[in-house]
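[User]
If only I could read backbone structure tokens as easily as an amino acid sequence. I have put the entry right below:
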Amino acid sequence: MTQVSTAPVAATAVPGPTGRLRAMLSMSGNPMDYFTGLRDQYGAVVSVPLGLRNLFLVSDPEAVSEILVNSHRTFTKATMSAGRGKWEAPLSVIFGNSLTTSDGDYHRKQRRLIQPMFHHERIAGYGRAFAEISDGIQSGWKDGQRLDMAAEMTELTLGVVSRTIFDVSLDSDMAHTVRTAIPRDEGPLRWDSLPFARYLAMLPLPGNKRFFAGRDQLDAIVYRLMDERRQSDAKGADLLSLLLEARDADTGKPMEDHQVRDEAVTMLMAGHETTANALTWSYHLLATHPEVRKRLHQEIDEVLGDRLPTVEDLPRLVWTDAVLNEAMRLYPPIMGMARRPLEDFELCGHRIPKDSFVAVVPWVIHRDPQWWPQPERFAPQRWLKDPTPADAADELTGHALRPGRPRLSYIPFGGGPRQCIGNTFAWMEGVMALATVGRDWEFEPVPGHTVETLARITIRPKNGMPLTARRRRPADARD
């Protein structure tokens, strides 16, 4: 169905809307609904006029596989024109030349160097930290208290990455800088997915100034921690120590300081915000679906009783795992994946020109009724491998696991050689956080609050996520 060609392509033009200004306004407003509507109207490949180039929205899983897996070397992450023929990847303004933003041989070399740090057995060693930090974050909550779960989950995941990446506490200066110094809704991070982003970032706007000042503060802390590690003889298990100890298999050389900085900052910034969003949306969905919430608590009570979860409990937390998977289907952690074709190519019978902007948007794919019956329905039973007789009566039970489904119809962590290297870390952290908090608490929606999405690199609630906390058991029964 899908064919790549580096020769001139004789194929039909890609359908899509007209009007660059209208597309720009829609992209800056509610892009997820806009993209979903374009798919419904025009099909699996849509041409969207955007800036000086067209954006090609691709939502067919087989076509996505062609881009991310089969012909991934035909595409580059460097999608933003930086002038004079130079291209840069989105987010390089904060992540530098890390796994998230780099390309080609450099990316493959870095991936091989860093991959062992995310081996399943090593990540399992962080399980106790996942549970302890999740347990500690709830220590100040009160029965009946209204909480902003977006803020609470950000604190939780920031605590996790602070401990596991830098071996520092949540009240450290590093955690404070990440929490306060990098503005997410203004400056370069706001513009980075739009045309002319590099030029907008150069303007002397207050948000830009605050962003670059915060980035400088964060860099100073990271380099200071690197110096402290080198001056110590201790071999740490945190990821920063492992980055410093890593050696190239061919040359035996360590990474340069700027390389360590780029990878550490990427793990820190991307690692805590994406998981925080996944947990926030999970609690929103649990709060609005009492029957799903009740089953979650029954499973937690049966598996854990009064103790904290361990990594060994994960295979038995089947429903908890299903809740997280389904939450990430409805609310994927990232807004999308951008690629630039290095040559003209053919996709689904359409010509996609060299140096255009190709976008893969998980939200659109995850809500396509062709792959997901009743796509707007929150149904964790989609992910049950061994359903109960009661589950079997629901046509959606086990649907996500059925043979023959396109593999890339579910891409919360991307796909192919560039799939998120921390996907196991994020999944384990998410399931253990849900289980830990669920021992003691359940949450209810706040009457009158309207939940809106904000798609700015990640997908998070626009005005926070206020929920009312209800204690499930007395405080003195907690560990």
User: Anything to note?
Assistant: The two ends are 56 Å apart (CA to CA).
